[in-house]
Write a structure and sequence with these properties.
single chain
């Protein structure tokens, strides 16, 4: 989910920036998609804290609500 969101939103932001550089009125839309990209980055960072390698049953943990 994080990788797909990053890829799609980064491409969208790049295209909107290009459109803006060519004179299109994309300010509010570009701001919205930049915000969404930051939200995906925050999600990935939060999710990463909740992952760890598991080699055996001894490695399993019940993740706390905040990991």
């Amino acid at each position: 989910m994080g990788a797909a969101g990053r890829a799609a939103l980064a491409e969208t932001v790049a295209l909107l920036e290009q459109a803006g550089a060519n004179g299109a009125e994309v300010g509010p839309l570009l701001d919205q998609y930049r915000r969404r990209l930051r939200q995906v980055e925050s999600y990935v960072e939060a999710y990463r804290r909740c992952c760890w390698p598991v080699q055996s049953l001894a490695d399993l943990k019940l993740a706390p609500s905040i990991c």
